[in-house]
Amino acid sequence: MSVLVIADHDAGALSPTTARVVQGASELGPIDLLVVGDDTQNVVAAAATLAGVAKVLTAKGDVLADGLEMLLSTLAVRYHYVVASAGSVGKDVMPRLAAKLDLMPVTDVVKILGPTSFERPIYAGNAIQTVTDNQAKHILTLRASAFRPAATDTAAPIEVLDDEVNSVARLLAVQRTQSDTPDLATAQIVIGGGVALGSAENFQLIENLAKTLGAAIGATRAAVDAGYAPNDWQIGQTGKIIAPDLYIAIGISGALQHLAGIQGARKIIAINSDPEAPLVKLADIALIGDLFEIIPQLTAELESLGVRR
Ligand SMILES: Cc1cc2nc3c(=O)[nH]c(=O)nc-3n(C[C@H](O)[C@H](O)[C@H](O)COP(=O)(O)OP(=O)(O)OC[C@H]3O[C@@H](n4cnc5c(N)ncnc54)[C@H](O)[C@@H]3O)c2cc1C
Q1: pLDDT for 119-156, tens place per residue?
Q2: Where exactly does CATH 3.40.50.1220 map onto the chain?
Q3: Which residues sit with their C-beta closer than 6 Å to ligand 1?
Q4: Which residue's alpha carbon is nearest to atom 18 within ligand 1?
Q5: Where does the chain hold its CATH 3.40.50.620 domain(s)?
Q6: Which residue lies with its CA nearest to atom 25 of ligand 1?
Q7: pTM > 0.85
Q8: What separation in Å is there between the alpha carbon of 264 and the centre of ligand 1?
Q9: At the top level of CATH, which class does the domain 189-304 belong to?
Q10: Mapped to the 3 state alphabet, what secondary structure does the chain carry?
């Protein structure tokens, strides 16, 4: 079965989500990985190394949904599956492509059970739906965090497409958050802070601990709404979906909308003064006490043990 995957990239670098989507989609067949954009030499080179990629296709032009949809609808005739990550590009372009091809997209796939059978979360992650897709062609978005990254051991050939992708829409500006911490959606360790931190300054406690562990930083919506943490740190139903090996939840009650974003976490440590908090009950390990005492002690202890990643 032939598979076309759309690569995510930004600022001249291949996004870590692409390696995860490639790994997930490799269960469906050999992959042609499509890189669209200008000045993408580094992206294409990185894409060609991913295990499971048979060929990298590259086209110049805009990565905006209307132009991308035109290119994909032409390419789609060659493939059984067209796959993207369930990120901002995939969420924008794949429903348009599906509508154009008169197909039903299967979105937010977290498990591939077989060639036509997929699992996806519903009801804010409180139930998992199994979808059987018997259409001739499949339009899928994959939740990258649900899959391990593909290894990098190949050197796939590169095919330059003649098509230039032109959009009617125009990109006016890009605003990037500068950060030296790992990407929240793909980090191995995530530390999340709740509204109990009490101020943006107190979030520094989380940042210190995160630096020690080489972790990404997240927050609850209550903490974001209170102005203690930036919007792009929000984890949950209306924030980012994470799937780290370890999630340390600090002063977080564990509302359903927050839990919807952390179901892929392999181990959870909760630090909370309330032993009855839902997240404490869900956690593998719970430290019951005042976060303002526990966090500085934990950070100092880890530093004294020489833990710094
Ligand atoms: C439509 C909708 C979408 C939403 N989407 C999201 C989403 O995407 N993500 C999200 O996170 N929320 C979301 N929410 C909000 C969600 O319902 C909760 O309100 C929010 O997650 C609670 O955040 P919190 O845990 O920081 O605060 P709280 O629920 O107030 O919990 C604070 C916790 O801190 C503990 N605590 C207090 N002081 C200390 C201390 N000194 N030391 C240790 N522990 C302490 C308390 O025991 C408590 O458990 C959404 C809500 C709605 C209605």
Answers
A1: 999 887 788 999 999 999 999 999 998 898 999 988 99
A2: 189-304
A3: 194-196, 220-223, 234-239, 251-253, 255, 257-258, 261, 272-274, 277, 290-292
A4: 255
A5: 3-165
A6: 252
A7: no
A8: 19
A9: alpha beta
A10: CCEEEECCEECCEECHHHHHHHHHHCCCCCEEEEEECCCCHHHHHHHHCECCEEEEEEEEECCCHHHHHHHHHHHHHHCCEEEEECCHHHHHHHHHHHHHHCCCCEEEECEEEECCEEEEEECCCCEEEEEECCCCCEEEEECHHHCCCCCECCCCCEEEEEEEECCCCCCCCCCCCCCCCCCCCCCCEEEEECHHHCCCCCHHHHHHHHHHHCCEEEECHHHHHCCCCCHHHEECCCCECCCCCEEEEECCCCCHHHHCCCCCCCEEEEEECCCCCHHHHHCCEEEECCHHHHHHHHHHHHHHCCCCC
Q: Across all residues in the chain, what is the average pLDDT?
A: 93
- With left for phi above 0 and alpha for psi between -120 and 50, is residue 292 left, alpha or beta? alpha
User: 3-165: what fold?
Assistant: Rossmann fold (3.40.50)
Write the residue with the smallest CA distance to atom 47 of ligand 1.
274
Mean pLDDT over 202-213 rounds to 95
